[in-house]
Amino acid sequence: MGYCNATKDGGNLKSSEISGFYKLGINERRKIVKDFSELTDEEEWLLSSPSDSLAPDKADRMIENVIGVLPLPLGIATNFKINGKDYLIPMAIEEASVIAAASHAAKMARLKGGFHTSSTEPIMIGQIQCVNVKDPLLAMNAILQLKAALLKRANEFDPLLVSAGGGAKDLRVRIIETKRGKMLVVELLVDCRDAMGANAVNTMVEAVAPEIARITKGRVILRIISNLATERLARAWVIIDKNSVGGELIVDNIVEASAFAAADPYRAATHNKGILNGVIAVVTATCNDHRAVEAGAHAYASRNGSYSSLSSWEKNSEGDLVGSIEMPMAVGTIGGLTKVHPIARIALKIIGAKSARELGEVIAAVGLAQNLAALRALADEGIQRGHMSLHARNVAIMAGASGNMVDEVAEIMAKENKVRMDRAKELIQEHNNPEKQ
Ligand code: MEV
């Protein structure tokens, strides 16, 4: 199990090539990492300190080569009213001010009835790539002729999903031009019900792929879900009273900001990042696959050929602000880790969503709220004031403040607009030795 290779000059060059790392216990793995990266005893201890919420043996079964767990703050966004129902929203995120901002926006939304949502059926797309097809049009027709049999074959592989009302519902074929010539893409549309569905979809496309190869006489290569979940969309909209958002000028500024994001990919990326601050925090809290949601969101934002915004803000005839969002939402309330991770289970219980669609709609509403909070701040005083006062607390803690001192130091730094480690240290020193001042 050596990971130190002797160099020519006799020194030891550490190698990350460690065979059988996965076979070791967590403690042994940690020891190796400690030596490799020269971790201190304290750092090793922090990695090893048992988490009541995610026991090491559970974590060890979730992924490979586990050496510890990484706790993230889990907070609750308050004030959300969605389709007339009140929700508390668990959000797992490391960025300060996101949860406060979402709660604030949700409070503004309540004045005019809160958020309204809708969604499509929970349909995911599985793709089968087929190359070297002599006559793609003929092959396409042959596949479509056999659609019913192919769907039946796919559904044989997930009777549970079928009995819950889901399963492969449709099949479509596209011919695409690529730099390697024409390709046939067969797409299975699978209703995943309350699961995110990657396993079900991947199993089905793998199951029908040999049939596709036989029918087309081509070569099937990839068989995998698409994260551009255009058939599984969540939508939310909201009316925000002009006075609660800060008056007509702010409404106008937010409408201008929305037009900016719609027209310019550089702004759209940041605008959408603000939406994803909320979306991903809930997706993470419920242990859904946030990479899938994020990939889908960005691909969807580019669906018209140029990257644009996922949300839009307009002014209505009363001068109030009207916001809407539409985005792919591949999340589940069963399957994956949602029921395995104890905290994810609790997070789902706190939200209380009865289905994956409801969860997706709640997440879309949180994304819209997060977007509103960011635009409101940007359209008015800028985001730094709010951001800095929260960031100041972290700087104060990092500089060594504890207890009441954290808020005292943070407040002074924020007021002075000097949120810096050196200033925090000075203030702590002044606090500890007042007679020297
Ligand atoms: C920061 O995390 C998110 C914002 O940049 C979003 C935006 O600019 O709309 C404030």
**How would you sum up the global shape?**
globular
Order of helices and strands: EEHHHEEHEEHHHEEHEEHHHHEEHHHHH
Q: Give the averaged pLDDT, no decimals.
A: 93
Quaternary state of the chains: single chain
For the sheet with most strands, the description reads: 4 strands, antiparallel
CA-based gyration radius: 26 Å
- The first-level CATH class of the largest domain is given as Alpha Beta
The helix tally amounts to 17
Under the CATH scheme, the architecture of the largest domain is Alpha-Beta Complex
Low-confidence stretches: 4-10
| DSSP strand tally | 12
- Termini Cα gap: 58 Å
Strand residues, percent: 15-25%
Bound molecules: (R)-mevalonate
Helix content: 40-55%
Structural class: alpha+beta
Structurally, the number of domains stands at: 4
CATH fold naming of the largest domain: 3-hydroxy-3-methylglutaryl-coenzyme A Reductase, Chain A, domain 2
CATH superfamily of the largest domain: 3-hydroxy-3-methylglutaryl-coenzyme A Reductase, Chain A, domain 2
- For the biggest β-sheet, the strand order reads 5-10-12-11
